[in-house]
Design goal:
The protein is an alpha/beta fold. The chain has helices at about 10-15, 25-35, 50-60, 80-85, 95-105, 150-170, 185-195, 220-235, 245-255, 270-280, 300-305, 345-365, 370; strands spanning about 5-10, 35-45, 65, 90, 115-120, 125, 135-140, 140-145, 175-180, 200-210, 210-215, 240, 260-265, 285-290, 310-315, 320-330, 330-335.
Length: about 375
């Protein structure tokens, strides 16, 4: 018998139409692919009505997924409602508390402490991108899963924890899913291109900062590999990488492995690249420093000399044309890119990713002019 799923999305802004739901299509697509029946989608405000909805849903569905209402404010009532509907009390989870304390320190005491409370007997779901962890457990035979509402938190948790859990639940633990990381291509265009290369496969995407995770399943491994090869031919092999990686992690690994230092001059990106690099706990092993210069043309050679670094990159320009310059002691090269300008912020973020990708390609000896010739869909 097909298992049924009910998705409850919590948020007054959603109900009032202030913000748009980003979860229903994702959950429906992925769970339908593995054999679930989506029974109902419900959007409810932050007013406590979740308790009544939960009780009814737990009697009629095999799985309930709740998003939102896990924060520290008084109107975040999801954890209380799930505990009450399940007939258990809330209790402080020591692992959740320790992880939250490590993230926010003494600020945990007070309202934030309730984010470490989960229904008794439930299991935590880690949230690497926020302070509110998710959790799951059962009320009678119904599996209840609670996730935070913000898409940048919910989506990674859904793919990393919830989808594998529900695959096991329905008996599809053996499903083969390949994961890739893509850069610079808009999500809608990426979905169009994947359908073009092989519409018989099941494709999924997850938007993240500076990248999109791409998943493919179905058919055999040879068929999936052939489709990815065709996608790389379309968009440029540098823009589709194996596994869950970032442009920064790829570049940083290379710099550390070869004991090279890096410096940066930013105009158009206004310090975004340097800020991203310094979010890496090991940035001091390779990053010499950066400057913001809005007035001069990008010149990586001057930046390298200024910081006495082994390598350097510079970014200048505007939404119509972004100039990237790269240098090391024996070579320098510059390229221009023209991005699809949805907004200035959109172009800036793609410029950050492009700078890191091209810096790595420059260091491994690639011709950047030849490289970007294939980047048709940026």
């Amino acid at each position: 018998m097909t298992k049924s799923v009910e998705l409850i999305v919590i948020g007054t802004e959603l109900v009032r139409g202030v913000i748009q739901d980003q979860h229903c299509q994702l959950v429906s697509r992925e769970l339908t692919h593995i054999g679930y029946r989506m029974k109902e989608f419900i959007a409810i405000p932050d007013d406590g009505s979740i308790e009544h909805v939960l009780l009814k849903a737990s009697e009629e569905s095999d799985v309930i997924i709740v998003t939102g209402g896990l924060g520290p404010t008084s109107d975040d009532m999801t954890r209380y409602a799930i505990a009450k509907a399940s007939g258990v009390s809330l209790e402080k989870n020591s692992g959740c508390f320790d992880r939250l304390y490590e993230r926010i320190g003494e600020r945990i005491y007070g309202a934030n402490e309730k984010q470490a409370m989960i229904p008794k007997g439930f299991t935590c779901l880690l949230n690497p991108n926020g302070t509110a962890e998710g959790f799951y457990g059962r009320k009678n035979g119904c599996l209840i899963i609670a996730l935070p509402g913000p898409p940048r938190e919910m989506r990674p948790m859904f793919y990393d924890y919830v989808l594998p859990l529900l695959e096991r639940e329905i008996g599809h633990d053996g499903i083969k899913r390949d994961e890739y990381t893509t850069y610079l291509i808009a999500e809608a265009k990426l979905e169009e291109l994947t359908e073009r290369v092989d519409s018989s496969l099941e494709w999924g995407t997850r938007f993240q900062d500076y990248r999109i995770s791409l998943y493919v399943q179905g058919k055999d491994k040879e068929r999936r590999d052939k489709a990815i090869a065709a996608l790389r031919d379309l968009v440029g092999k540098e823009l589709v990488q194996d596994g869950d990686v970032t442009a920064l992690s790829t570049l940083a690994s290379y710099l550390k492995q070869h004991k090279l230092s890096l410096s940066i001059s930013e105009g158009f990106t206004g310090g975004l690249i340097s800020s991203l690099i310094t979010s890496d706990p090991e940035y001091d092993q390779y990053f010499k420093g950066g400057i913001i210069d809005f007035n001069s043309k990008a010149n990586a050679d001057n930046t390298r000399i200024l910081f006495s670094s082994d390598t350097a990159l510079s970014v200048s320009g505007n939404t119509e044309c972004v100039t990237f310059s790269f240098a090391k002691k024996t070579r320098s090269e510059s390229v221009d890119l023209h991005f699809s300008a949805i907004s200035t912020e959109y172009v800036k973020k793609r410029s950050v990713a492009a700078a890191l990708i091209l810096m790595h390609e420059f260091l491994v000896g690639a011709s950047l002019v030849d490289t970007v010739k294939h980047w048709e869909y940026i």
